[in-house]
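Feature request, filed as a ticket because there's no other form

It would be nice if the structure record came with a short human-readable summary line next to the tokens. Right now we just get the raw output. Example of a typical job, pasted below so the devs can see what we mean:
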Amino acid sequence: MSSNSLVSIIVIFLNAEQFIQEAIESVFSQIYKNWELLLVDDGSTDGSSVIAHEYAKKYPEKVRYLEHEEHQNFGKSTSRNLGISYAKGEYICFLDADDVFLPHKLEKQLAILESHPEAAMVYGNTLYWYSWTGNPEDSQRDYMPELGIQPNMLVQPPSLLKLLLGHGGAVPCICSFLVKRKFVEKIGGFEESIQHLYEDQVFLAKIFLTAPVFVEGGCWEQYRQRDDSSWHLSMYSGEDNQARLIFLNWLENYLNEQQIKDTEARQFLQQQLWRYRHPMLSKLTKPTQHFVEKMTFNFTNLILMNRKQLKEIAQQTLPSPLYHLLRSQVLGEKYSPPPGMVNFGSLRRLTPMSRAFGYHRGLPIDRYYIENFLERQANDVQGRVLEIGDASYTRRFGGDRVTQSDVLHVIEGNPEATIIGDLTNADHIPSDAFDCVVLTQTLHLLYNMQAALTNLYRILKPGGVLLVTVPGISQVVKCKWGDDWCWALTAQSARLLFEEKFPKTNVQVETHGNVLAAIAFLQGLAVKDLRQKELDYQDDEYQVLITVRAVKPEVAS
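Raw output as currently delivered:
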């Protein structure tokens, strides 16, 4: 083989002391030698961290050890994405810490990819490996599943999607494929909203819908079968069933977001979702279930061929749930169940998942918007800066641009406070003193907001900047300072409020959030519970947070 392309091999691990060395050694045993190994520790508490450190220390030119900040556990998708972010290779493959590569893995698959430049990925079959135990009863249990497709051929999208939906073939194992880095980056890597189960199938779905994939006939990996693996445990507990529904719902949303109209792919998907969305089917006999499903999808095909004529008939004759399902499938819209049929899942509860804004789950959703706003306005955080409560944002976003940092607190005893006082009664704070005031999630706690803004305007230097965030859609809580939550603002009320004091041209108001972000925030979910594109989607009718940038004129008017 003439290629000398670098291959990045990403091994994520969590408490894999028993197996990780064997996995690493299977990489070192590769016939093809131009590889790098990235060992990503997902918060291990056993000896696997030490083993990984030792390999990185012994072979620094080949092996790197990575971990999350403060050795935290974030999950499979986030850990693989961390490895991807550090990978230098043109090609990437993944190996779980309890599986092994066979020696010709990289050599064979790299040769295939380089001879098929249009392919994003190559994969083959995988040995389901029971005999690793050495037990006589396991020696005959090893097997390879049916590929479900003619091997040694290039498959165009979205044909392989049916494998993920349970139609006639094995789902490729995470260790079975080699993928071009440019396609990993194109699809955005792994979805961090899905961490535990089906995260590999989400990744594969995006690849299968994006570019051709070469399916080969070789087998170059051994997939260790263990009763205590996450997959086996999920099967016994029933967790797999719920995880599959999450995957199917994600896939439906993804097809809609990407505007993928492929009829066959949507039919496969709706057939899988049917049983989840219509649990009454489970009470029918198997022949009746098959009859209903066949009728449903045959009718869908009729509608596709003659929409206008059949739409009215379908609306008049079909049960409402069935009509809504068929309509969404035919039109490629998001499925909107009829009244009484909405599946709330984990959100059907009368109390939130967290009353602490989601802090115990990670970064709260409103803080995501706050910090994005401050990051975009970081150049304003300079000179002498005043912040409320503590100076964490001043330090984070101002850095060495800040010449003096002050902290205002309403109650004595705060060790960071340099000024004690109430913004509504702050004559003791000097006028024209601050280049920037950072006022996050504070103004709504003050009943007399106009008085507070009068003082803020006064203490700013000419040309000084006021950076403000206030809640829109939010739970209402007691503030730790003892003040009651007085107000919830909108973009319009914030604009009118600030324009009473600052010139209109000096006031910039923005809204942040959407209906999903609002629901998640009210439930006390965190940023990790949503995808970034779900957080970043902006809908002015669902204002989770309002931000204001107001500048005091250089010359007082």
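Something like this underneath would help us a lot:
DSSP finds 19 helices and 16 strands in the chain.
The CA atoms of residues 165 and 269 lie 7 Å apart.
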